[in-house]
Amino acid sequence: MPASVPFERTAASLRACRICRDAPLYGAPLPQEPRPIVQGSGTARLCIASQAPGNRAHRSGVPFKDPSGLRLRDWLGLGEADFYDARRLAIVPMGSCFPGLDAKGGDRPPRRECAERWREELFAGLPNLELILVIGQYAQAWHLGRLEGGLTGTVRRWREILAEPRRPRILPLPHPSWRNNGWLKAQPWFETELLPVLKAEVARVMGPPPAALTAPADP
Asked: How many angstroms separate the CA atoms of 63 and 56, rounded?
C-alpha cells in the first residue's frame, strides 16, 4: 500500500472490519461480535507487534488492559501514560480481535484474515518507526520469516536479530502472559541480559513526551 495512506485512516477502516465474522476465510466465523483493537499514529517510533487482544482487552477496548499488560509495561520500563501515547507507540496485533477461547481455556490463534488484509497497509502508515518489538511466534514468523528453534531459539538470537541492518530494527520477545511463567523461569538470561537492553532501547526510541519537547523554558 502507498506510504501516504495515514495510519489513522487505515485504523478507522480496520475498526469497522467484520471479515472474520461475516466472510471468514479460515474456519468457523469469529464466535463473538468483532471489536478490532489497534493503536498508533504516523509519528510513532516504537511498535509492539503482538498476537491478539485477550478477553479483558476485548471487553475494555484497550490493548493490554490486563495482567499481561502490567508485565509488559514493567519489561519496557513504561508507565501507562507513555504506553498508551499513540503519538509515540503503536500497537499492531497479528489479529485485531479477540479470537475466542479453545477447549483448554486458552486464547485461540489470531485470525489469519486480519493480517492478510490489514497488516501491510497499517505498517505503510508508520513511516517513522525505529524499533518493532515482535511478541510471540505469530508476529515473529510474520516479521522474521521462518523461525529456527521456535520461539525460544528466536528470542535467544535477540542480539543477532537486533543488530541486523534493517530499518526499523526488530527485537523478539515472548508473550508476557502468566502462562509463560515456566518459560521465564527456565530462561534466566531473559531477565538478566535482554531486559536491560530492552529498557534502554525503549527509553531511547520513545524519548520525552511531545508536550515536553515544546514546553517553554523557565524564565
From this structure: 9
Q: Where are the alpha helices (DSSP H) in 102-206?
A: 112-114, 120-124, 136-144, 150-156, 158-163, 181-186, 188-189, 195-206
Q: What pLDDT, in 10s, does the model give residues 151-177?
A: 999 999 999 999 999 999 999 999 999
Please report, for residues 5, 15, 54, the alpha-carbon distance to residue 1 in angstroms, rounded to integers and kept in the order given. 8, 18, 28
Q: Which three cell numbers stand for residue 83?
A: 504506553
**Nearest to 15, CA basis, from 83, 124, 107, 114:** 114
Residue with cell 468457523: 28
Determine if the peptide bond prior to 168 is cis (ω within 30°): yes
Q: State the average pLDDT over residues 22-42.
A: 95
**pTM for this prediction:** 0.92
Spatial contact of 93 and 63, defined as CB atoms under 8 Å apart: yes
Q: State pLDDT tens for residues 185-208.
A: 999 999 999 999 999 999 999 998
Residue carrying C-alpha cell 517510533: 45
Comparing CA positions, the residue from 102, 89, 164 lying closest to residue 172 is 164
